[in-house]
């Protein structure tokens, strides 16, 4: 079991105060126990309420009924205003090398220390019950339970944000959430209010490019990058500070699904990402990320074309490489969704000595919001006492009372200074680990304004677009055409086209074509940020410099890890009469490489092979769908092949897998099945062995190189290049 593996690997001292053991003391297990009321009274009958006679009215006296119904009536808490839909897991983090040159954060200075973590992934806009596959930003929130208190890295799977100042956050969220009159659409940005807002917020341009890219459609939470977004500060023991951007790099690479596929998955399995994370951890295939940092010495603060404090900008990895400094492994699923995943409270303001804030105006506003929101969501100021939120180190202060207080504070004093209790609890000196804010010099006028260094709203949007592969660019064009196609107002569509024209005229032209519109001639000054300061809009004029970097490889998923099939889901289509060797040899080889293989047949139960062997079926063509798999294989066997060839659902399965650019393999004895598909006649005439890796389709002898090539193809994830030239109806 996953749980045992993670516990076994820990040193005994670590086990004593780590998070898993702390949580264990709160776990309730009712096996072998009598059922009781919440006050411990054994219940004799939980099937019938107390009545006046067996057909009589229910009596108010029935305290057992009342307790049960009252608790039930109050079981829901408000969902998060954003990031309501989420899934989480426990794990550990270890730094590779001592980082004390840059930071005194103890968990980053001791390669021997294993820090427990709890990580929650989420979508932003949808409600708790919405689909995992919405086109959306993904939250990537990590709680490190360090020996100096909790450090929360509350990031996203995209390195920038829509807005530069937190005062615009409620507007952004009101615009993207379902429209207030009819509560539509759910978990989607493809509607008028979102694009109305965005088209008047040129500062969103960069983030919009990310959100319209395939990054918004991850294949798995395990295959997403994470980013702290803001520039933070590292501070070392000498008090020397440097700027730092945090990254999470998934060891499985960064991969996405296609938009059409995402929409289908939303119907076939709206829990797709949740299930994927859960299943991988249960199977012991623990997801891993490396923590990366981009460090900029303070002296270099003004060395860049953009402002380090502007959260709509990233630092290109070409300018400041990402150093991989540690690894996070998720190795245990929560015991209880509500108590852990729902009640966890992250806060961007939970930092530890050695890490500090910058004056990024988005970060500064977040510092207020996260505690405030828990007061309503978790019902009061004691949410830090909920088991999942407790630090692993002792908590001692003079805060007292409040709803649902759990701690029984001993003694008379809840103030300081006090003489009665010798001034306990005491303040810690910096040398004793007391937190001291970075001594930043600030000499400024109090003013509502934005720095001119924030006004370049387009050059990094263009850098992102130009860095994409051709298929990725096509997907962005299609995504914008889809989203703006759902917008009813022509004026909003046109304004957005004018914004896109500032990023890339070709892109704007293609989207305009799809919308049946022309790009309007709107001057850059008129695309101003819509915050009028003293009515003087010119103060907020966007600028659009060229930008010195043409492309950045790190921004395209085309350059990601493509050499593993671990945890990939492969479908084998088969029916009675399948050739056992043709099926098993490929299946076994895939499993040996860490893939998950399902046999899909016309009906559930078993199929009988040519050799009269029973093979159990995992899914039927009715319960399965190609969108839930990464690749598909058709084994040989006369009757099986004849059945599949005549089975519309099997042919649809293959056509759809082709449409979504997945690897497809067939034993040469099953060629007939492929010949019945749409895509087969679309393959190039010169199609043969050498073109296999371009097209992602292989027909061969299961006993020769077929399996090896198929494994290589699956590792490549998708064959996006074939998407446009070989479009098929499916
Ligand atoms: Fe936020 C939740 C990430 C800007 C206000 N945010 C929340 C979560 C993530 C982020 C991952 C979910 C945490 C969880 O799983 O419980 N938020 C971000 C990032 C931002 C950002 C990366 C920009 C860089 N957020 C942001 C701003 C504000 C908020 C500017 C308000 C001024 N965020 C919240 C919140 C939430 C939240 C309302 C909702 C639930 C919660 O906090 O606990 O306070």
UniProtKB/TrEMBL annotation:
One of its GO terms (biological process) is hydrogen peroxide catabolic process. Residues 36-424 form the Catalase core domain. It comes from the Bacteria. Its cofactor is heme. One of its GO terms (molecular function) is metal ion binding. One of its GO terms (cellular component) is cytosol. Its EC number is 1.11.1.6. Residues 1-22 are annotated as: Disordered. There is a cross-link at residues 347-370 (3'-histidyl-3-tyrosine (His-Tyr)). Residues 1-21 have a biased composition (Basic and acidic residues). The active site is at residues 83, 156. It catalyses: 2 H2O2 = O2 + 2 H2O. Transmembrane segments: none annotated. Heme binds at residues 80, 120, 169, 366, 370, 377. Belongs to the catalase family. HPII subfamily. Decomposes hydrogen peroxide into water and oxygen; serves to protect cells from the toxic effects of hydrogen peroxide. This is Catalase.
């Amino acid at each position: 079991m996953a749980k045992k593996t993670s516990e076994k690997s820990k040193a005994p001292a670590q086990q004593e105060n780590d998070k898993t053991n702390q949580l264990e003391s709160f776990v309730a297990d009712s096996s072998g126990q009598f059922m009781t009321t919440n006050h411990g009274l054994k219940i004799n009958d939980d099937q019938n309420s107390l009545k006046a006679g067996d057909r009589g009215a229910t009596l108010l006296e029935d305290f057992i009924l009342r307790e049960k119904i009252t608790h039930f009536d109050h079981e829901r808490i408000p969902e998060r205003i954003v990031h309501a839909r989420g899934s989480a897991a426990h794990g550990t983090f270890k730094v590779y090398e001592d980082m004390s040159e840059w930071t005194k954060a103890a968990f980053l200075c001791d390669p021997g220390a294993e820090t427990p973590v709890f990580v929650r992934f989420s979508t932003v806009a949808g409600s708790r019950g919405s689909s995992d596959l919405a086109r959306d930003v993904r939250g990537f929130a990590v709680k490190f339970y360090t020996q100096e208190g909790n450090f929360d890295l509350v990031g996203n799977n995209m390195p920038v944000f829509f807005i530069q100042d937190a005062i615009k956050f409620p507007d952004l969220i009101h615009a993207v959430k379902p429209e207030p009159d009819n509560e539509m659409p759910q978990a989607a940005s493809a509607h008028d209010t979102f694009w109305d807002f965005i088209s008047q917020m040129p500062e969103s341009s960069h983030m919009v490019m990310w959100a319209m890219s395939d990054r918004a459609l991850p294949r798995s939470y395990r295959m997403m990058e994470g980013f702290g977004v803001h520039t933070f500060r590292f501070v070392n023991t000498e008090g020397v500070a440097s700027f730092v951007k945090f990254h999470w790099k998934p060891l499985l690479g960064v991969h996405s699904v296609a938009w059409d596929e995402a929409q289908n998955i939303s119907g076939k399995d709206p829990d797709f990402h949740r299930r994927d994370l859960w299943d991988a951890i249960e199977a012991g295939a623990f997801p891993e990320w490396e923590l990366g940092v981009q460090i900029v010495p303070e002296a270099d603060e003004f060395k860049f074309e953009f402002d380090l404090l502007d959260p709509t900008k990233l630092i290109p990895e070409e300018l400041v490489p990402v150093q991989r400094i540690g690894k996070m492994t998720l190795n245990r699923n929560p015991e209880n969704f509500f108590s852990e995943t729902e009640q966890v409270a992250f806060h961007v303001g939970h930092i530890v000595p050695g890490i500090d804030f910058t004056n990024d105006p988005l970060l500064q506003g977040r510092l207020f919001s996260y505690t405030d929101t828990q007061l309503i969501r978790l019902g009061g100021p004691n949410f830090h006492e909920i088991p999942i939120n407790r630090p692993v180190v002792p908590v001692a202060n003079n805060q007292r009372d409040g709803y649902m207080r759990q701690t029984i504070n001993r003694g008379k004093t809840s103030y300081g200074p006090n003489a009665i209790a010798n001034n306990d609890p005491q303040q810690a000196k910096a040398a004793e680990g007391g937190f001291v804010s970075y001594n930043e010099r600030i000499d400024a006028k109090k003013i509502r304004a934005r720095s001119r260094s924030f006004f370049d709203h387009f050059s990094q949007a263009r850098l992102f677009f130009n860095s994409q592969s051709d298929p990725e660019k096509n997907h962005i064009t299609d995504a914008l055409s889809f989203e703006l196609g759902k917008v009813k107002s022509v004026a909003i569509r046109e304004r957005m086209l004018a914004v896109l024209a500032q990023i890339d005229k070709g892109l704007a032209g293609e989207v305009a074509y799809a919308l049946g519109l022309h790009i309007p001639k709107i001057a850059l000054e008129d695309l101003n940020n819509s915050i009028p300061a003293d009515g003087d809009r010119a103060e907020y004029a966007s600028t659009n410099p060229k930008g010195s970097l043409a492309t950045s490889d790190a921004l395209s998923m085309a350059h990601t890890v493509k050499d593993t099939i671990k945890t990939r889901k492969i479908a084998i289509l088969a029916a009675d009469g399948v050739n056992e060797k043709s099926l098993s040899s490929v299946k076994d080889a895939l499993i040996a490489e860490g893939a998950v293989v399902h046999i899909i047949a016309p009906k559930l139960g078993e199929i009988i092979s040519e050799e009269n062997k029973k093979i159990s079926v995992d899914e039927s063509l009715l319960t399965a769908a190609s969108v839930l798999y990464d690749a598909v294989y058709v084994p040989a066997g006369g009757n099986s092949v004849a059945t599949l060839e005549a089975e519309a659902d099997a042919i649809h399965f293959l056509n759809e897998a082709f449409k979504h650019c997945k690897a497809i393999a067939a034993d040469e004895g099953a060629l007939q099945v492929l010949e019945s598909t749409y895509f087969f006649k679309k393959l190039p005439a010169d199609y043969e062995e050498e073109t296999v890796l371009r097209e992602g389709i292989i027909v061969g002898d299961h006993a020769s190189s077929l399996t090896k090539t198929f494994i290589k193809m699956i590792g490549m994830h998708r064959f996006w290049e074939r998407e446009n030239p070989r479009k098929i109806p499916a």
